[in-house]
Amino acid sequence: MKFKTWDINLKVRLFGEALLDISFWAVFPFLTIYFSDSIGRQTTSLLLIVSQALSVITGLLGGYFADTYGRKRMMSISVIGEGAGFLIFAIAASTMFYSPYVAFFWIYGG
């Protein structure tokens, strides 16, 4: 299976996923430091554990909804939700509206 023979949708998805994963894992360690300074280490660690457990559950639900409603539709909804989540995170972590709890739940809960 050669890369040149792939469908354009697969190439775009591969590029998008790579870009999203690289950017997330480049920022993730610093977000942990930010949240531990803002809301405390114990609360941050507990919330990170809960967010990963919820991530597994939502991943399973996403697969179910993709089977039910179609993969393309669910991927489009997911990308729109992810973009909105990053926008809300940026606003919640700004100097205009400072709320580490809102920022945490939008970046890790979404």
Could you explain how this protein is built, in words?
The chain has 110 residues and is mostly helical. It has one domain (8-108). The protein has 4 helices and no strands. The protein has helices at residues 8-39, 41-69, 71-92, 100-108. Helix 1 runs antiparallel to helix 2, helix 2 packs antiparallel against helix 3 (71-92) and helix 3 (71-92) runs antiparallel to helix 4. It is elongated and about 50 Å long. The N and C termini lie far apart (34 Å). 6% of the residues are buried. The model has no long low-confidence stretch (mean pLDDT 81).
What's the number of helices?
4
Determine the strand fraction and express it as a percent band. under 5%
**Mean model confidence by pLDDT:** 81
Uncertain regions spanning at least 5 consecutive residues:
none
Key descriptive features of the protein:
single chain, 110 residues, mainly alpha, 0% strand
Helices, strands, pairings?
Layout: H1 8-39, H2 41-69, H3 71-92, H4 100-108
Helix pairs in contact: 1-2, 2-3, 3-4
Short overview:
The protein has 110 residues and is mainly alpha-helical.
